[in-house]
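We include the entry.

. . .
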Amino acid sequence: MSAYLAFSRSAFHAQLAYRNEVWANIFGKLVQVVARVAIWLAVYAGAGATVVDGVSLQQMVTYALLGGAVMGATRPERVIGEIGRSLKTGDIAVWLLKPLFYPLYLFANECGSFSYRLATQVIPTVAFTALVYGMLAPASLFHGLMFAVFWALSFVLIFLMSALSGLIAFWLMTSFSLDWILGALLHLFSGLLVPFWFSPEPLATIARHLPFAWVVYYPNAVYLGRLSVADTWLHLGLGLGWAGLFLLGVLWLWRQASRRITVQGG
């Protein structure tokens, strides 16, 4: 386990080597979050009301800020790109000779990068925009604590989705477009752009039951108190179920991919 912790620390320190990139990323995240907030300010101004369908403007501003925080610290394309590069260069075969589990290495590496982005991009961005636009506190202590749990689950789900998508490259022999497909699905079905309580039916009902909903929508809904205590526990269990299914998928695909490398490499 110490080896994986070392990989995580190495990934964190590697990101620090590009200090100018930190400022560029902070500026980019600020633009994205401000744009999302501006959209909802315009929507509510056009409606001529501060409450639409039982959702206040301040709740939507908070939702936009939290959505930027949840997705801002994750980079699905990084995991997929790492697998694609290893496959293209042939380095992936070396992992079969090491006393390490490649998917777990990917997870440790992403944990280090996640910590870096959280500390240098997400927290400063959310803090600044919250001071400018205002941000609601969690609906209760319970909802605040459960938001942290759902956020951790969101990170695990995104990683597993990314790893699963990346491992498909062993059969396609390229990771090209895999990150784009996953990114499109996340933006459409995670609730990042439009929360499901504003989405038309039956799209909203379908999206609520897809695993992407646990990436943005459910963490934010918990934070804002849109879910009762019983519903919060229920959806946490469902989210853990999705994570378990994706984990089994990653383990199965990696076993098949390992056999494929062994057969082709001799």
